[in-house]
Amino acid sequence: MYFYRTMRNKTDANYIGTLVKNLSLIILICGSPLAAADKEIEEVIVTSEFRNATLLDTAASITIFDDSIIKNRQAKHLEELLNLAPNVNFSSGASRGRFIQIRGIGERSQFIEPLNPSVGILVDGIDFTGIAGAATTMDIKQVEILRGPQGTLYGANALAGLINLTSNQPTENAQGKLSLAIGSHNTKTMAGAMGGSLSSDVNYRVAVQSHTSDGYITNDFLIKDDTDNIDELSLRAIFDWQASDDLSLKLTLFRVDADNGYDAFSLDNTRNTLSDKPGHDRQESSAVALHSNWQANEQFDVVSLISFADSDLEYGYDEDWAFPAICAGQECDGWEYNSEDNYLRDRDNSTLDVKLVSKKPVSLLGRHADWVFGVYARQQDEQLLRQYTYNASDFSSNFDTKNRAIYGQLDIDIASDLSFIAGLRLEGRKATYNDSDGVDHSVDENLWGGRIALQYKLDDSTMVYGLVSRGYKAGGVNSDSSLSAQDREFDTELMWNFETGFKGSWFEQRLQTRVSVFYQQRKDIQIKQSLVQSRDDSNASDFTDYFGNSGKGSNYGMEVEVNWLASEVLSVQGSLGLLETDYDTPLSATLDRRDQAHAPLYQFALGASLQVSENLIWTADIEGKDKFYLSSSHDEQSESYWLLNTNLAYIADQWSLSVWGRNLTDEDVIVRGFGGFGNDPRKYYATEPYYQLGEPRTFGVSGQYNF
C-alpha cells in the first residue's frame, strides 16, 4: 500500500521508469559495468559525530555532499543542495530557503513569534540554527545532513536532525583557487581562497565569495527586473596553530553580508509582480570560533569549542503585493489597501562545548569500550522590532534562552563484529520572553534525550544497525496578545525514533549502498496555525500566527542512497526518500488526520557522470518530489515535479571550465504557499491560493584556476 501511494501518480511512475531504462542504456553503451573499473569510491569521513568515523561505519542515516557535488551542482547556498538528500525539504518565504524540514519535521516561516527550531545548522562549529541565510557554500569542503533526533549530540534544537557545513582547512603547502561564474538573470559569482604556512607551527586559509543576481522576478509596476535580487558577500579566515606538542588551537573568523531583495508573491501567481515598495531579506553575521585539542594524557583528549555569533537581520515586504492605484478607474476603486511589514532582529549567540574523548579503549565488564563525556552551555539573546503599517506603534520583544547540558556516550565492543552504543544528554533550559504588548513569560524545564544502538558487521565492508533515539523540542509562548489565555503557551514536543538500516560496499569498493527504515512517534506536536480576521476597512484579512500542540502523530518511511562506479568512464548516484506522516488526533474539524505539512510522499535524485574524454566530463541529474501540503492551517498543496540539470566540464591541468544548466525543462516549482485568504482588490478579495515560485530554467558558465 505504501509503494502504491508513492507511485499513485501515473505520470511520475512512467517517467521514472523511462528514466531508469535510459540510464541503463547509457551504462551499456559506455562499456561493461564493474568488470572494467579499477577505481574505487573514496572513503567519506563523518566529522559531526563525537569522533571522526567513516560514513559506512556510522549507525545513523546520514547524507554527505563533498565539494565535487557542490561544484557540479553550481550551488552557492545550502538551499541548492537540499533536494539531493532523501526526505529533506525546505520552505522559502524569503530570498533563500531558510526553513528546513527533515522527515517532515521543521518550521516553515517566522514572523513575530519566538522560534525554537527543529533542525540545527552549524557552519564550522558555529551555531546558525534558525538563520540558514548564512549557509553559503563559500570554500565548503563537505555538507553533512544527519536525519533523526540528535538528542545526545546537539540537544534542544535538533529534534528533526542536524546539518553541518565544514570548510576547507589550512594546510602546510601553499595552495589556492580563483573562480568566476556568470549566468542567467545577470548572475555573477567571484570567489577565491588561499592557504599555506605562516611559520613552522601556524597554517592559515582565507576565502572570499561575492554572489549577485537580479533574480527571476519582473516588477511590472516599477519596470524593474532586480526587485528580488541576491547580493551576498562571504568571508572566512582560519588559523591553525600547533601551540605545543600536546595542544593545538584553531581560530575561525566568519562574516556574511547579505543584502537581498524580496518581491516574490504575485497577485496572479506568476513571476511578474506589481509591488510599489518591494521588500528585502538582509543578514549581517559576524562570528568567531576557537577550537582546541589538548592531549591531556595517554587516556583521553580534552576537545573544546567556544563560539560567538552576532547577527543583524531585516526582513520586510509589501504586504498588499500591489501599488495603491491598482483599482483606479475600475469598479473596485476604493477597495484597495496599502501596507508594509518589516522585522528587525538582533541575535547574539554564544556556545561553549568541552568534552573528554577517550584515546585508548577501557575495559568494561571484560569488553573494550570507548567513551565521551562533555559539558555544554549556550546562551542566545534576541531582540525584535516590528514596524507595521496597521499598528499604531512599533512592536518590540526580547527573547533570551539559556541551555546547560551534560552528555556522554559509551561505545562497547560486545564481540569482534558487534558493537553497542549508548548516549545520554541531560539539558536544563531557561527562557524568558517579554514584549511591548505586556506579554511576560518565563520557563524553566529539564529535558533529556539520547540513543541506544547496536551495530553488527557482516564482513569488513558491510554492516547492519538498529537504533532507538529520543529527541525534544522546547515549548514556548505565543507573542500575539489577541490570543486567548489557553492559546498563549504551548508544550515541549517529544519524539521517539526507531530506525534500522544497512550500509555496504561491494565489488572492490565500486558500489556503495545505504538503506534506512524509520518510525518516529511524536507527542505534543508543535503545529503552527493562523487565525484569519477581516479588516474593518475592506475585505482584506489580517493573520495571527501562533503555535499549538496536537496530541500525537507519526512519521515513518525509508531512505536509500546508491553510489556506483559503473565503469572506467561512468559513475552513477541516486537517492530515494519515502515518507508517510499522520496526525493521530485531529487538527480541527476541517483538517482531520491528514498528512503533515511539507512532507512529500516521495522524493528522488538520479545522476550520472560520464568521462567523455581525458579532459571532458558530462554530468546530468534528475530530481523529483511529490506534492505536499504547504501548511497545517489550510489544504493548499504544491504540485509534484521533476527537474533536469546538467554540467559539462573541461579540465586541463590547473584549469577547469564548466557550462551548466538547471531546471532545463523550465518547470514551475512552488517553494512557499498560502491559502484561505484574498489579497487582490480587483477580485474584491475573493479567497484564493497564492504561491512563491522557485528558480526557472537557468544557464551559466564558470571557470576555476587552482594554484
Characteristic key phrases:
38 strands; disordered N terminus; mainly beta; five-stranded mixed beta sheet; globular; Maltoporin, Chain A
Q: What's the Cα radius of gyration?
A: 25 Å
Query: Which residue ranges are poorly predicted, with pLDDT under 50 across at least 5 consecutive positions?
Result: 1-13, 18-37
The CATH topology, please? Maltoporin, Chain A
CATH superfamily: TonB-dependent receptor, beta-barrel domain
Distance between the termini: 55 Å
| Helix-and-strand structural type | mainly beta
Binned, the helix content reads under 10%
Number of individual domains: 1
DSSP strand count = 38
Oligomer: single chain
CATH architecture: Beta Barrel
Classify the beta-strand content into a percent band.
over 45%
Q: What's the story with the biggest beta sheet?
A: 22 strands, antiparallel, barrel
Shape: globular
Question: What's this entry about, in short?
Answer:
The protein has 707 residues and is mainly beta.
Structure description:
This protein has 707 residues and is mainly beta. It is 5% helix and 56% strand. It contains 3 helices and 38 strands. The chain has a 22-stranded antiparallel beta barrel. The longest helix is centred in the N-terminal third of the chain and has 21 residues, at 10-30. The chain starts with a helix and ends with a strand. Residues 1-13 and 18-37 have low confidence and may be disordered.
